[in-house]
Amino acid sequence: MNFENILIEHNNSLATVIINRPKKLNALNRATIKDLSKAFKALAKDKKTRAIILTGNGEKAFVAGADISEFANYSVKEGKDLAAKGQQALFNLIENLSTPVIAAVNGFALGGGLELAMACHFRIASNNAKMGLPEVSLGVIPGYGGTQRLPQLIGKGRAMELIMSAGMIDAEKALSYGLVNYVVPQEELLPLCLKIAGKITNNSPVAISYAIKAVNAGFKNNAKGFETEINAFGSCFGTADFREGTTAFLEKRKAEFPGT
């Protein structure tokens, strides 16, 4: 199976999915989301694949965010569709995949990139990793599950601060927050992921799939939260703040938000 924006490497029962847009810091665009969706669906059906590692190409970024230029001129309806279809096609798909998915966060994981990492079953970071949800600096909110998964992982107060400040945290703070499980030097990141994945593949894949389902069930009382996020994300596309935020970003200047 050939893809435009990702690579897949197989090593016995392990598969490594590499987002391959290094010149764009592996930013998510529609084509990359489509490639990832197809890849994970195919790997889920492959009985030989017992664990999956997801990472970005290069040493700078896991995924540095979404491709802003693709949706800067979207309407409210288009914004809602963007979030709803993206969540269904990729982020919810990964979270509920019966095959364990480990995010190897090898640099910047911002916006949709952090949301992608949070959809994975757990995360391991290199010591140069930086994470955050900067969407409000563009006049929009996280739209791929970020407002739901981040509080689950680090608590409501810390999530509120990180989302509202549009700030970034380094790998050590992410570790102290419980956002990642381990922090290691860049050269040790994939070896550690492979080591842990190897331990996973020694166990019953059927039992693991049930364990994933059972653990996720404990967090499913927030179904309306994801729906609320989608609607709120879409509503942002009808605001003057969104137009100013995205225009300022693309023009590489500081935004002056009118507050409407």
Number of domains: 1
Number of helices: 11
Task: Write the CATH architecture name.
Answer: Alpha-Beta Complex
Derived from helix and strand composition plus strand pairing, the structural class reads alpha/beta
How large is the radius of gyration?
Answer: 18 Å
Enter the CATH topology name: 2-enoyl-CoA Hydratase, Chain A, domain 1
Low-confidence stretches: none
Strand content: 15-25%
Mind summarizing the main beta sheet?
A: 6 strands, mixed
Helix content: 40-55%
Annotated CATH homologous superfamily = 2-enoyl-CoA Hydratase, Chain A, domain 1
Number of distinct beta strands: 10
What gross morphology would you assign? globular
Distance between the termini: 46 Å
Q: Give me the strand/helix succession.
A: EEHEEHHEEHEEHHEHEHHHH
Going across the biggest sheet, name each strand in turn: 1-2-3-5-7-10
Quick gist of this model?
This protein is α/β, with parallel strands linked by helices. The protein has helices spanning 30-45, 68-71, 76-95, 112-119, 146-154, 156-165, 171-177, 186-201, 205-217, 223-236, 240-250; strands spanning 6-11, 14-19, 51-56, 61-63, 101-105, 108-110, 122-126, 130-132, 168-170, 182-184.
